[in-house]
Design brief:
Blueprint: E1 6-12, E2 17-23, E3 28-32, H1 40-51, E4 58-65, H2 67-73
Length: 82
């Protein structure tokens, strides 16, 4: 079935938005690192656009982010009530 051809993983970090596209038709995978944006939604949209996967052929999208983890590790950001 064409609608389950692509499986996509996206990670939005503090520096890059990374995407991995797995094509079930030929068992190939490829990584894409589009230009980073600080707008998470825009970064995901750009990454999906650069994936080359038609939306009607995407079986799943898994999304993760290291933005919050990086903020904790680097002690950046603001705690509630501060």
């Amino acid at each position: 079935m064409a609608h389950d051809r692509y499986h996509i993983g996206i990670d939005v970090g503090g520096t890059f938005t990374d995407i991995v596209v797995c094509d079930q038709a030929d068992a190939a995978s490829r990584s894409i690192r589009p230009h980073h944006t600080h707008d998470i939604a825009s970064g995901i949209q750009t990454a999906l656009g650069k994936s080359g996967a038609p939306t009607d052929q995407i079986a799943e999208i898994a999304h993760g982010t290291t933005v919050a983890t990086n903020a904790l590790l680097e002690r950046k950001g603001r705690a509630p009530g501060c």
